[in-house]
Design brief:
The protein is α+β, with helices and mostly antiparallel strands and 137 residues long. The chain folds into two domains: 42 residues, no CATH class; 75 residues, no CATH class. Helices cover 18% and strands 17% of the residues. Helix 4 links the parallel strand 2 and strand 3. The longest helix is centred in the C-terminal third of the chain and has 11 residues. This is Zinc/iron-chelating domain-containing protein. InterPro entries: UPF0153_domain.
Amino acid sequence: MTALSDFNATPLAERACGTCTLCCRLPDIDALEKPANAWCRHCTGAGCRIYEDRPQLCRDFLCLWRTDEKLGEAWDPARSHMMIYRQGPQVTVLVDPDHPDAWKRAPYAAVLQGWAREGEGGQYVIVFVGDAVFKVD
């Protein structure tokens, strides 16, 4: 996994990870030899055992919910069962495989379709659910 988000993004003061640990499960993290959709061996279920020594990628990552004030509480990854980030023009949605249809439900489906239709600067939306990949139209 390379860049996960716009690293210049600033977290919103009122938003914290809380009990969410989806970033410890959903993405692959080469530096930790962690495949996608597998729990990181350092995840305690409430945090990270190696937090002070975690890889730079983990230090730099902020999901879109933490940085985009337009995403309301429904988009909190712990509630939505999705982790969203930007990679240039690509909006990437990683869906918790325990909730594979989460991205198809309201309010998420309509917003994802809206982002795909906007296509600002060539923007597009890709959804990963386990091994399945979908492009939102």
